[in-house]
Specification:
- By secondary structure, this protein is α/β, with parallel strands linked by helices.
- The protein has 16 helices and 14 strands.
- It has an eight-stranded parallel β-barrel with strand order 5-6-7-8-10-12-13-14, surrounded by four helices. A two-stranded parallel ribbon has the order 1-2. Strands 3-4 form a two-stranded antiparallel ribbon.
- Helix 6 links the parallel strand 7 and strand 8.
- Bound molecules: D-xylose and calcium ion (CA) (2 copies).
- One calcium ion (CA) binds next to loops.
Length: about 425
Amino acid sequence: MSEFFPGIGKIKYEGPDSKNFFAFKYYDADKIVGGKTMRDWLKFAVCYWHTFRGVGSDPFGPGTIKRPWEDGTQSIDNAKRRMDVAFEFFQKLGNPYWCFHDRDIAPEGATLAESNKNLDAIVAHAKQWQASTGVKLLWGTTNLFSNPRFMNGGATNPDAAVVAYAAAQVKKAMEVTKELGGEGYVFWGGREGYMSLLNTDMKRELDHFGRFLQLAVDYKKEIGFTGTLLIEPKPKEPTKHQYDFDSATVMGFLRTYGLEKEYQINVEANHATLAGHTFEHDLEISSRYGQLGSIDANVGDAQLGWDTDQFNMDIHSTTLAMLVVMNQGGLPVGINFDAKVRRESTDVEDMFIAHIGGMDSFARGLLNADKIRQDGTKAEWIAKRYSSFDSGIGADFEKGKADFKALEKFALESGEPKQMSGQQEKYEVLLNQYI
Ligand code: XLS
Ligand code: CA
Ligand code: CA
């Protein structure tokens, strides 16, 4: 069998002093950190869509990236060869997982039946590769946004025929995700939203979305798929307003439709920032409500302001992210590199360097988060900041034992509260000590 990345061997851990771009400086898969291996804390996945289907096109120009293994056809042979390339890449990089959309891995046919047949052929091929390499599927998902039929949405489309088509596609993608042993199944609703309220019956669309997600729960149970169902929030792009705006919105939506026990959140860093939050904000809020299931690891660009899906090389950001993950004891699903090399990064070597850098960046974040937790100063300071709720009127308030009259009595008797500094700069200096 031919080798697609000759000259690049298995990527090894060489430690922080190494200058080798084809080695890990921090990601040491078997190293124990906070009671678990790095492999288990991080559960890294490579995404198929960017890394093996991305060509570097943007709204101003076509693809710049030409991979030597592509023959330019939509054939099953080309799709299989691409899958061979992917598994060589996974084995060399050492990521334990991968992720895909139904339409990334197999060509769409002229009919739904033909598309399903194409998908089956490629899934059988992937299954063989998974068995021979031990690389596992983190999650599968459905592309309900590229084909023109979904221009007005999938589950929230105003045309019932399109909703039925979307359901058929999700049904099949759930079946193949189960077939490949996926640990999760993600719903990202890029066109589940609207471009103009003038032509939109918002309540009807939201009710349809709730119904559709309930049908996915029912089908999951029917086929015995034991993976986690996830929703990936994003505020906009491609539609002007997307219903899964951010983690808080999604959690409110899930509660409205009685689905909060069935779905977890897949937080993507760049989507959180597009919603006007930080990455760690969306992680923290979903984690504190017990719904942080998985992460799409990437970063946007503050100056560009659109979904640039870059590899996250910012250690501050990965430290704060991994602190949330460690505080909740790990991720039920994992960390998927939903990131792409730049349009100008056209060498195959860039694919490796980008992922090695991203993995090291999160590994370093993990090590820093562990230091923060071991040291305990941050947690101590926060506990002290809220300590007035540990006893007296604060504890009565928390336990529901103090009503407005009791709180008023306390305020009248105690007078003006003493000023308490937020000490933000002190916390920022403390954080820098671990990074
Ligand atoms: C697009 C999303 C998408 C999902 C999977 O912005 O990130 O790639 O992760 O459909
Ligand atoms: Ca994503
Ligand atoms: Ca994205």
